Amino acid sequence: MVRAGPSAPGWTARERAMLAAVDLLHHEQDLDDESWTALRAHLDEREAIELCMLACHYQMLATVIGTLRIAPDPPAGRGLLRRRRSPRRRSPEGHR
What we know:
Strand content: under 5%
Largest sheet: none
Order of helices and strands: HHH
Shape: globular
Number of helices: 3
Oligomer: single chain
Structural class: mainly alpha
């Protein structure tokens, strides 16, 4: 449903307004008055601001990750757990 966007069947009116707002923020980096009004019909001002902040934060994070060419983590269960080396023991004098 997410790939089909906010017009896909199955979304509630609240979910549709939120998805439309996030899509607009992603593509236009702005919300027009109509979209803000639609969002506010389902969220109070604080929630609407928080949704904007969250959507823009993820956009910023994705931009930084892409710019720095950070490789994605491997899928779960594939090399995530590595055997840790036992900590070095200190000699009685405190030297390693």
